[in-house]
Write a structure and sequence with these properties.
The chain has 455 residues and is an alpha/beta fold. The protein has 22 helices and nine strands. Helix 3 crosses helix 4. It is globular and about 95 Å long. Bound molecules: adenosine-5'-diphosphate and magnesium ion. The site of magnesium ion (MG) has 5 residues, from helix 8.
Length: 455
């Protein structure tokens, strides 16, 4: 729905009178010419004349109902443009008379279109329950690159948008400073009042929390991993981004009636510390799509050889991005035939995936890298004890435990509980794409050395 103030401003700019505007608004609501005439107490002829005046002023040619559709398209597109501008420069763009439409409070700055969305019924239900019923203050959506965190965050926010006065979806991909992010959020939430933004970070966070207490908002911060530090400990922040940690801690600890939904490949320390399964801060580790949903992705690429689809889906662990990429390769190189593709080395780590993994790998400590190299070479699941024995010469047990915890927080390990009833051991492994990537990383000299040792 288009905000009234925006319509009024645009109409004035185009020389459309208020009488003409009234007709347009009713026509766009779906009213027929006789109905509009009745509502406005004018003749049908007058309605038609006013409408054709508006089309002329917006330079819309043609005839019949197409013109109305065209007008609607123009208005919606200008409105979207206006929203994206207003977000970066709100004080200058927003009308300040306080008569904003509720939808002006729903800001989807750069959120992807999720009209082709499959599966995730359970995750959506869980997240909705946490946010709407249990009123969690922070919900973290964690998982490896391409697993569908961003998509799910948008789908969920769209699904529950009517429950909130404000929805603000913001990506951190461009690594905006915390000060800018806070300034934007506060400006949006304080409209139509004009406020002086405090300089100090703590005061800005306090002011934001004040609004989050007064108003019921869903803030979505996407790609939080971008502002986490690349240092060896998975939970530190960039020095200049320490503020994000402060924001997370205070949003998790202090009383307010809003929710922060965040997505990240890595788990921030604050989340690790505050999270509990029944508390106000919760985390959901996102796994791949279920087979039925993953199949829809392959279907959408018109692949054939259906009896082999499950192999493909299992190999890529239902990761929708990985499946989309590999499906495109199969489409282009193997005439859509999965069978043909599987005759070759079917673990394709595409450039896009390699970039994500490169980025993640660079952030690992030496101990974490050692563990990754070791796991990449194992065909079986590995216990902590196995790891300890295998690495006793290179890392201490406490380093091993810390590194395993850290790797777990980076969405890089696959963990399963041992089936042996006598032990409740956790067993570790790498998923095929990661294993393949790491094995290709191991320098030849290192591999030769180890082969020699084994010989
Ligand atoms: N539930 C889904 N249904 C259909 N496609 C999906 C779904 N989730 C993700 N995708 C596809 O996978 C790609 C990666 O998803 P995205 O949410 O960006 O992953 P992440 O944020 O975890 O890196 C998306 O661009 C989209 O094409
Ligand atoms: Mg994402």
């Amino acid at each position: 729905m288009i905000n009234q103030d925006f319509l009024q401003t645009l109409a004035t700019a185009k020389g459309v009178s208020n009488l003409e505007l009234d007709v347009v608004v009713l026509a766009m609501d779906g009213d027929s010419t006789p109905a509009i005439a009745k509502k406005l107490n004018v003749s049908e002829d007058t309605v038609r004349k006013r409408l054709s005046e508006v089309y002329r002023k917006f330079q819309i040619p043609g005839s019949g109902p197409v013109k109305l559709t065209k007008l609607q398209q123009i208005l919606v597109s200008q409105y979207q443009q206006y929203l994206s501008q207003s977000y970066s420069d709100l004080p200058n763009h927003l009308p300040s008379d306080g008569q904003q439409d509720i939808n002006l409070h729903h800001i989807w700055n750069g959120a992807p279109d999720v009209s082709a969305f499959y599966g995730r019924t359970e995750e959506l239900a869980t997240l909705e329950k946490w946010i709407v019923r249990d009123r969690c203050r922070i919900v973290a959506l964690l998982g490896m690159g391409g697993i569908g965190k961003t998509y799910l965050s948008v789908k969920l926010a769209r699904q529950i948008q009517e429950r909130f006065e404000y929805i603000i979806w913001q990506s951190l991909h461009q690594a905006p400073t915390i000060q800018d992010v806070l300034a934007n959020l506060i400006t949006i939430l304080s409209q139509p009042q004009k406020i002086d933004l405090p300089e100090a970070l703590d005061q800005r966070v306090s002011l934001l929390i004040k609004y989050l207490r007064e108003k019921h908002c869903l803030l979505v911060l996407d790609a939080v991993e971008i502002v986490l530090d690349s240092s060896t400990v998975f939970w530190r922040y960039h020095n200049e981004s320490e503020g994000y940690g402060i924001l997370l801690r205070r949003l998790g600890e202090e009383q307010h009636q809003s929710c922060l939904l965040m997505t990240s490949i890595e788990k921030p320390r604050e989340i690790a510390l505050l999270e509990s399964s029944t508390g106000c801060v919760r985390a959901l580790e996102l796994k791949g799509l279920k087979p039925e949903a993953a199949q829809k992705i392959l279907q959408s690429k018109s692949l054939t050889g259906e009896q082999q689809w499950s192999t493909l889906i299992q190999t890529y662990r239902g990761n929708p991005l990985a499946l989309k990429i590999v499906a495109t390769t199969i489409q282009e190189v193997f005439s859509c035939n999965v069978d043909e593709f599987l005759k070759y080395e079917f673990l394709v780590v595409s450039d896009m995936f390699r970039e994500i993994l490169d980025w993640q790998f660079k952030r690992l400590s030496n101990a974490e890298k050692e563990i990754m190299y070791y796991l990449a070479k194992q065909n079986n699941l590995v216990s902590v004890q196995n790891l300890q024995q295998a690495m006793q010469n290179s890392i201490t047990t406490s380093e091993l435990i810390v590194a395993l915890e850290s790797l777990g927080g980076r969405s890089l390990l696959e963990k399963v509980q041992s089936e042996d009833k006598n032990t409740s051991e956790t067993l570790f492994s790498l998923q095929p794409v990661v294993r393949n990537y790491v094995n290709k990383l191991i320098p030849v000299s290192k591999r030769l050395n180890e082969d020699k040792k084994r010989a």
